[in-house]
Amino acid sequence: MSKFSFRRVGRRSAFTAIALAFALVVSACGSDGDGGGASASPTTDPNAPELTGDPVKLGMAIALTGPKAEAAKNIVKIAEGWVLRANSTGGIGGRPVELLIKDTKSDASTAQSVVRDLVESEKVVAMFINDTGTEGAIADYLESSGVPVIGAEGYNTEVWGALPSFYTYWLDIPGTIYASPHVAKTLGAERFAAISCAEAAACAQAEQIYKPASEGLGMTWSGMLTVAASAPDYTAECLTLVERDVDFVILSTVSAVSTRIVQDCLQQGYDGYFGSTAGGFEEYLFEDVPGAKIAGALHAFPWFTDDDPVVEYREFLEEYAPDAEYRAGMMSAMYAGLQLFQQAVQDVEGDLTAEAVKKAYEDMPETTLDGLLPQPFKVTAGEPVAKGACYWPYEYDTTTKELKVLEVEGEAGNGAEGSLRTACIPELQK
């Protein structure tokens, strides 16, 4: 256990800036304009149970435009598949489910417009948002609207874990930053470094956590290097890592830049670990870079294990979302949020309004969804949901294509057995 304390390393303003930086590496800038829409409606399966009553309308505001567009489209495919399964198997308490999807285009004004339309015109009873770059711009409106935000991914420290109507169930800020040094230590690393984006000054502020966290765990802090996405290559930075004998470098850059860094550093003889955490790790983007060792913290459940709930997830995908590229935590987070929603509201009688949804979540007993959540989830009326402190440490060898969850010592954060057991960050546990 490290000897530094959570209170010593940061004020709220510092975490807010770091959260903004993290948002920059898991989101994208897009064009202005109106948010497009789509809808996943009840099944056309003639053998499906008859559904009655008003549809349960779920809203989704997601960045379908920009460098993260492909990941977003796959998140939508999984959500649409879930709706298809729900409506093929009795809906929500016999009611049909309808999913209304709007493109935020990673633009604040567009996000505000589409969210207002979903709430006021479409009358959705719950919202999913997946646009880390604009969540701060829509948070106050959603909090005041009375419509709960039930997932699926976000990192703004003034939103998740701060506003009572935003239900976080993943590892978020600052946990995503603390977790990387812990994973590095688990792998035996001795010299820890970071590479972050040069596009925003806030990116470099993560050093305020990385440095004391790595040193507190007995490693040598080897510095923060900044890189521009537009740089032709990263040879100089890679040579610096080699010269400093770094054996774990966390990549706080978008996946497209991270893969280029990995390729360049391998060519320069770097043989340590590349760290990629939370929404930054997309297995399918790293698989074409042989010779790399990738490791980090998964914020949502691992999609590749043989644990029963994960096998059931892949069986669901095979039947209802066969075209979805699911090999990333962003997709796992979407599915977990939908499963949470169903567990909370399945037995609600009468009209399923936004108020009824919130009451159902408050009445739901503490749950980990049989290990699909990193830690117990519980909603208490008027209070923010506890921020994430637990995660799945993983290691990926791009040569052998072996992707595994690292063994967790001690008590699992989610009480699970097997590969679903989670590790936790002592500094962040209450």
Residues in helix, %: 25-40%
Whole-Å distance between the termini? 15 Å
Give me the secondary-structure category. Answer: alpha/beta
- Count of discrete alpha- or pi-helical segments spanning 4 or more residues: 13
The fold-level CATH name of the largest domain is Rossmann fold
Percent range for β-strand residues: 15-25%
Largest sheet: 8 strands, mixed
Order of helical and strand elements: HHEEHEHEHEHEHEHEHEHEHHHEEE
Uncertain runs with pLDDT below 50, 5 residues or more?
1-12, 27-35
What would a concise description of this structure say?
The chain contains 13 helices and 13 strands. It has about 425 residues and is α/β, with parallel strands linked by helices.
